[in-house]
Amino acid sequence: MAQPTFEQIVNLAKKRGFVFQASEIYGGLRSAYDYGPLGAALLRNVKDAWWRSMVQLRDDVVGLDSAVIQAPRVWEASGHAAQFHDPLVECTSCHSRHRLDKLDDPERCPACGLRGSFTESRDFNLMFSTHMGPVAGEGNLVYLRPETAQGIFINFENVRRVSRRKLPFGIAQLGKSFRNEITPGQFVFRTREFEQMEMEFFTRPEEAGQWFDYWVEERRAWYLDLGMRAANLRLRAHEGGELAHYAAATYDVEYRFPWGWDELEGIANRTDFDLRRHSEFSGKDLTYFDQAAGKRFFPHVIEPAAGATRAAFAFLIDAYHQEIVRGSARTVLRLDSRLAPVKAAVLPLSKKPDLVEVVERVAGLLRPRWDIEVDVTQAIGRRYRRQDEIGTPYCVTVDFDTLDDQAVTVRDRDTMAQDRIGIDALAGYMADRLGG
Ligand code: ATP
Questions:
Q1: pLDDT at 56
Q2: How many domains does the chain contain in total?
Q3: CATH number, domain with residue 198
Q4: Does residue 130 belong to any structural domain of this protein?
Q5: Cα(46) to centroid of ligand 1, in Å?
Q6: What is the band of 1 on the pLDDT scale with cuts at 50, 70, 90?
Q7: Same domain, yes or no: 185 and 235
Q8: What number is the average pLDDT over the span 30-59?
Q9: Which of 18-32, 108-122, 280-294, 399-413 has the lowest average pLDDT?
Q10: Residue 137 — very low, low, confident or very high, per pLDDT cuts 50/70/90?
Q11: Which residue's CA is minimally distant from atom 28 of ligand 1?
Q12: Which of 70, 89, 129, 236 pairs with 334 at a CA distance of 20 to 30 A?
């Protein structure tokens, strides 16, 4: 099946209200987006699926929700204050700015096509800064976190103590991160405000290698389990020069986006860099005492770091299908039911009050357990098409026979097969298919 084009995805996202331009009524804020009802549900489902697999289903990982703004020393210790730079060039002709390391041709401006028009490249720190309190000044300069990971490292000892965990164990966190990207773009792929899902897995130094291999495979499997097609997913090892200053080894999980392979998630062996640095900078001992071995050391860290907004976008692209059904085109999002924003739509065949009344009763049975939608407008064929386009796995139709047989027709999004199910048995039928 051919990949959808970038335009098809953006058009669907806008038309159905997955994503809106931020500040749209004021002319929009460039490269910033708001998630509409369906997009918010999809994003929440992606985050829930991550949390379930990383925290809820595991005995060796616990959760955390740390502050976006931390003491500035955190970013000195992490290296972000000194090292979190991208090389920035500006075109002297059209004044567009670009990341030098991301240009296909470092001599040619991709905006206006001129050659040799770039300024000298300069380092640009990607952290957003602001001030704490009413007076802006040197002393109260703070940063919005550019990753959620550091909130975990600085809480290592707090969490270890209260959760009474022994190595190996992990701390997971998801939430907003901010980077003043020079060239945001490709819709929600790279934005300045985005959501991350990160987990720091603390191990004995000698076990870090095996846990690294474990987490690379585990994270790849997560995307596959949620229905992403294997042909669109690959692992890529970072080469020597590409490795971050803190990493001994890194694999990227990459997705085949409409513009080519690009990063979904990075899994890094961060060694003991972070705990060691935070110990040095804070003066607090962040070593671990291994009772069995009778020694103290800095744990090593394996970090799977994913983007929630980026993953939601990739799942949307991967689910997009266009097909011809009985001579007419149908767009269908084949989202895994765990990710689908709406699990079932309840539709009366007509707007007749006695049918609508049954629809309300059926909806009332399903609503406490699943996200459902009731739609009474338009011809039934159009309503099916809309539900296919937003990825709703099941349409439950109440028709005139329902009044006699107390049964409804359940239509499967992917096969379009229809089952006649008694209203009494409907919740059980759905639970078998949707879980919950
Ligand atoms: P890049 O090199 O593309 O700027 P990175 O390698 O610095 O990204 P990480 O620091 O490893 O990214 O961040 C982990 C994950 O967070 C990324 O794999 C991605 O999914 C997500 N992410 C990072 N930056 C952004 C962004 N600007 N917009 C959306 N998601 C992002």
A1: 98
A2: 2
A3: 3.30.930.10
A4: no
A5: 17
A6: low
A7: yes
A8: 97
A9: 108-122
A10: confident
A11: 190
A12: 236
Task: Determine if ligand 1 sits within 6 Å of the CB of residue 264.
Answer: yes
Pair 312, 426 in one domain: no
Q: What is the dihedral of CA 50, 181, 341, 376, to 10 degrees?
A: 170
Whether 397 is in the pocket of ligand 1, judged by its Cβ within 6 Å, is no
Whether residue 311 is found in the same domain as residue 382: no
The answer to whether residues 310 and 409 belong to one domain is: no
Is 194 near ligand 1, meaning CB less than 6 Å away? yes
Average pLDDT over residues 247-264: 96
Hey, what are 104's tokens?
A: 């296909």
Please check whether residues 33 and 158 belong to one and the same domain: yes
Q: Whose CA is nearest to atom 22 of ligand 1?
A: 307
Instruction: State which residues form the domain around 350.
Output: 342-434
Distance from residue 250's CA to the centre of ligand 1 (Å): 13
Is residue 257 located within the same domain as residue 364?
Answer: no
- 40 alpha carbon to ligand 1 midpoint, in Å? 20
Assigned domain for 170 exists: yes
The predicted-structure confidence for 164-211, as pLDDT tens digits, reads as follows 999 999 999 999 999 998 888 899 999 999 999 999 999 999 999 999
Domain of 429, CATH number, reads 3.40.50.800
Say yes or no: CB of residue 193 within 6 Å of ligand 1. Answer: no
What predicted TM-score, i.e. pTM, was given to this entire model?
0.93
Does residue 278 sit within a domain? yes
Amino acid in position 189: F
Based on the domain organization, do 312 and 378 belong to the same domain? no
Task: Give the distance (Å) from ligand 1 centre to CA of residue 156.
Answer: 23
Same domain for 310 and 353, yes or no, is no
Give Cα 259 to chain centroid, integer Å.
19
pLDDT at position 46 over 80:
yes
